[in-house]
C-alpha cells in the first residue's frame, strides 16, 4: 500500500468512504433517520477535542474513538429525551446537534488558544474536511470500517430488511428491534466518524443520504438498492476528489453526488421527472384521441352505417379545442389509419369507426352508470364521464354490458365470433 | 464553587461597555431566533432551522459576488431567495419524487451548502466566510460601530435587533394566523388563509433571521437558539404566548450566562452560549414542574407514599374491627403493605403525624388516625357496594378495584355515593359500613 501516490491513496480512501456510507446510509434513509447522520457528525466534535486533550496527539484512531463515544452519547441522550419528555424527535435531534457542537466549539477554542501550534491545526480539518492529510494508517482504518459495515450488512441482511420496512411486525415476531436499530445506527456512526476528516462535519450528512436517495430513484428492491448505493457512493467519492483540484474537496464530492442525484431525478425510469412527464403526456394524448374519435362518431352517427365526411369547421365547433391542436390531433389519427382527411373534411375509416364506437360506448356506459347507480342528474354526467372513461377497468364495462343486455337494452354482450374455419382438436373422451 | 467563580471574575472586565454590547448583541440575536423558533418547534420542523441556516450560504455568496459589499440589503435578498428555494425544493422532492421528507431536506441543504462553499472559494478570496459562518465573531462585535439612533452602535447589534423587532411585529400582526397554522394547518386552509403561504412566510423569516445573526454569532448559535430555548419553554408552559415569552427569556438568559462563563473560561462565546442554552434545557428536562423527569419521579413517590399510609391506616382499622387485639407488631404492619422502603417511610410518617402510636414493637391507631381510617374503609365498602349493585360485578371481584380506587375518591364523591346507594349499612360481604 505504501507504493501508492498520495493522489491514489486519497482517491481510494474517499471511494471506500463513499461506498461504506452509501450502504450504511441506505438503512438510515429507509428508516427515516437520514438526519441522525447529520447529528452524529456534529456531535462527534467534543469527542474529537476531548480525545486530543487526553492523548495530545492527532492519531486518527484515537480521535475517532473519542468521536464515536460522544456520538453514541448523543444518540443515547436523544433516545431518552424522545422517550421520556414531550420534546419531539425533530427538536431532540436539533438540540443534541447544537448542544454537542457548541461544547465542541468551546473545547476547540480552548485547544487552539492553549497550544497554538501545528499539532492542533489538524482538528480544524474535522470541521471542513482535509483529505490531503491522509496517511497509510488512515487508509487501513477506512478499509477495516468499510469491511465491517459490509460484513454486518451481509450477516444481518434479513433482519435489517425487516426492521427497515416494518419495525412493528419485526417486534411482534420477537426480533430484538432495539438492538438491530442500534446496530444500523452504529454502522452509520462508524462511517460518519471515519469520514469526518475527509469531508467535514456538515457535508458528512450528504455522504450518508445522497447515494441512498439517488439509488432509491432507480430501484425498489433492497438488494439492488444497497449495491447501487454502494457503487454510487464509491463513484461519487472517487470522481469528486479527482475533479476537486484547487477546490475544497468535501464540497466537490458532495456536489458530484448532488449532480448524480439531479441526473437520476430527471432520467430515472418510473420515478424520474422525464419518465413521469412522458407517461403523463401519453395519457393526455390518449384522452385527446378518444375525445376526437367520440366527436367524430357523434357527428357521423345520424347517417350510420353510411360513413359521411364531417367538415373540419363543425368538428372544431363540437370539440371546443384550439384550431392548431385539432389539426395536429387529426394528422396524428390519420397516420394511425383511423381517418381520412382532406383540406376541409374528415371521414372515419372502418378501423376508426370501430375505435370511435368503443370510445363512445365507454362514455355512454359510464354516464348510464352515474345516472342509475350514483343518482346524478342527466346534465351532470357528461363531464365526470369525460374524466373517468379513459381509466375504467374493462371488467366493469363488461359487467355494465351484461346488466344492460339482461334488461334487453343492448344486444347480448358476447362478441359475435364466427365458427372456426378448421377442425378443432377433439377432447379426449 | 460559586464563590471561587465570583472571585475569579473580574467585574471590571465583564461589565465594561464592550461586554455590555456583546451581551446585548447576543441577546438580540437569541431573542429574534427564539421568536421564530417557537413556531418551528411547534410545527415539528425544527430541523428546517438547521437546514435553512446552512442553505442560505449560496444566496449570500452570490449576493456578495454581485454586490461586492457586505451591505445587508443584497445579502438579505440573497438569503431569502435561497431560503425559499430550499423550502420549495425540499417540499417538491418529497411530494413529487417520493423522497422521504427528512432525506429530501438533507439532500437539499447539504448540496446548497457545498455549492456555497465552492462559490465562496471561487469568488471571494481572503474572506474567512466559512469559519465566520460557523463560530461568528462575537468577541470583536463592539469594534465595528455605525451611527444609529444618534449614537455609536455596533454594526452587529443593529441587524439582529431590527430583525427581532420585525419578527415580533409580523408575529403580532398575524398572530391568529400563525397560531392556527401551527396547530391545525388543514383547518387554517379551510378557513380561507393558506397554511402553505404561512409556511413560506415563516421560512423567509427564519432565513432573514439567520443571516442577520450570522455575522455576530455564527450558524451554530443560530441553530441552537432557533431550537433549544423554544423546546425549553415547551417543557415549562402549555400556552403559545407564555411559551414565546419564556423562550425569549431563556434565550436572553443564555446570552448572559454564556458570556459570563465564556469570559471566565476564556473560550468561544457563541459556543459557550449554546452550552448555556443546552444547560437550561437539561434543567427543564429534569425539573420542569409539570413535565420534568425528577418532578415526575417525586410526584409518583409522593402518591405511592400516600397510598401506603392510607393502606396502613385502613388495615389497622380492620384489625380493630375483628376485636381480638388493637395492636399490631411493627414488622407485621410493614409486611402487610408490601414491605420495603416505602412501607418503612409510610409508618414513620404516620407515627410522626400522630395518627399511630407505638408501644415497644407494637403500633395502634390514635383517635385522629382512627377517624381517617374510618373514612378510608367507608369509601372502600361504599365502592364495593356500588360495583356489586349497579355494575353487577361478582362478589369476589370487587375488593381489588375498590382497594385501588379508594385513594382517589374525595369526601364529596363519597357522600354522593352514599346518597345514591340509599340507606346502606352493610357492604356486599356483609361487613358494616362505618358512619
SSE topology string of chain A: HHHHHHHHHHHHHEHHEEHHH
Strand order of the biggest β-sheet of chain B: 3-5-4
Number of strands of chain A: 3
Query: Gap between N and C termini of chain B, in Å?
Result: 59 Å
Radius of gyration of chain A: 33 Å
Dominant shape of chain B: elongated
Task: Provide a descriptive summary of the structure in words.
With 429 residues, chain A is mainly α. Chain A has 18 helices and three strands. Chain A has helices spanning 6-30, 34-55, 60-84, 89-115, 118-128, 136-155, 157-165, 167-172, 177-199, 201-218, 222-242, 249-267, 273-300, 312-319, 323-335, 350-373, 381-388, 394-406, and strands at 310-311, 339-341, 345-348. Chain A has a three-stranded antiparallel sheet with strand order 1-3-2. In chain A, helix 1 (6-30) packs parallel to helix 6, helix 2 crosses helix 3 and helix 5 crosses helix 9 (177-199). Residues 116-120 of chain A have low confidence and may be disordered. By secondary structure, chain B is mainly alpha-helical. Chain B has a three-stranded antiparallel sheet. In chain B, strands 1-2 form a two-stranded antiparallel sheet. In chain B, helix 5 packs antiparallel against helix 6 (72-96) and helix 13 (240-265) crosses helix 14. The two termini of chain B are 59 Å apart. At the A-B interface, helix 2, helix 4, helix 10 and helix 12 of A face helix 4, helix 7, helix 8, helix 12 and helix 14 of B.
